[in-house]
Design goal:
mainly alpha, ABC transporter involved in vitamin B12 uptake, BtuC, 13 helices, 0% strand
Length: 263
């Protein structure tokens, strides 16, 4: 029989991988990887604020990720967003968070677990929070799939069809903040974007439709979680980075298959 901590780790990893990989399809289609990096890096500031005010880390990370994501969305609406601004927000928030964590008096903090994840030590409550967040993300994606997709692939056609592309991009922004909040326990702030992008990028080589790409990405994400946990236990390596390494290996295998054009 599997140990309880392995069951919790597997459930947490699968929930995170499902939500991140499906949402990651939109990140890949919209080329929002750097946007995801900025939001994820800012999550360390959320960790510091949560510890300082004795709040839930998930709540603190989610709040800061949401503020940063909305800030980037606002700048983009004003045509002021650029790689430079994203870089300032991403690395500035990360540096501020690291300094804030260092200044917390009397707190003993395993900062590495927030940077790279520590899924083997998640509690039953953590698993519940992760699945609640992942379930909410997947439910919104299911409900909003058509307008999100048309706004992503053809904004002009979306406007002509009565779909507001800016509203749909805002929905994606909110979902991205939610995924960052639930994923920090699994892969950490520095690797969240990898779990968003790599399964979706691998699925892109195999899919014949956007829906097929989302399903294949989910499969790659779940397989990465399983292989990562197994590899981590076998090799005694950090679990979060091992999950990402497994995703990279599956991506490499996917690229060996002749590319199928979406249609």
């Amino acid at each position: 029989m599997l140990d309880d901590f392995l069951v919790r780790a597997a459930l947490a990893s699968v929930g995170t991988a499902l939500a991140a990989s499906v949402l990651g399809c939109f990140v890949v289609w919209r080329r929002l990887a750097y946007f995801g990096d900025a939001t994820a890096h800012a999550s360390i500031l959320g960790v510091a604020l949560a510890l300082a005010f004795n709040l839930s880390v998930t709540l603190g990370v989610g709040a800061v990720a949401l503020v940063v994501a909305l800030t980037i969305h606002r700048l983009d609406d004003r045509r002021q967003s650029s790689d430079a601004i994203l870089g300032v927000l991403a690395h500035g928030a990360l540096a501020l968070g690291l300094v804030a964590v260092a200044l917390l008096s009397g707190a003993r903090i395993d900062l590495e677990s927030y940077l790279f994840g520590d899924v083997l030590f998640v509690s039953a409550r953590d698993v519940g929070v992760i699945w609640a967040g992942a379930g909410a993300v997947l439910a919104v994606l299911w409900w909003h799939w058509s307008p999100l997709l048309i706004a992503t692939l053809n904004p002009d056609l979306a406007s002509a069809s009565g779909v507001d592309p800016r509203r749909e991009k805002l929905v994606l922004t909110l979902l991205l903040a939610a995924v960052v909040a639930v994923a920090i326990k699994v892969v950490g702030a520095l690797l969240i974007t990898a779990l968003l992008v790599i399964p979706a990028a691998g699925a892109r080589h195999l899919a014949r439709s956007p829906e097929g790409m989302a399903l294949i990405a989910a499969g790659i994400g779940i397989a990465s979680a399983g292989l990562g946990i197994g590899g981590s236990l076998a090799l005694d390596t950090p679990t979060g980075p091992t999950i990402v390494c497994a995703a990279v290996a599956l991506f490499a295998l996917a690229t060996l298959v002749p590319r199928v054009v979406l249609r």
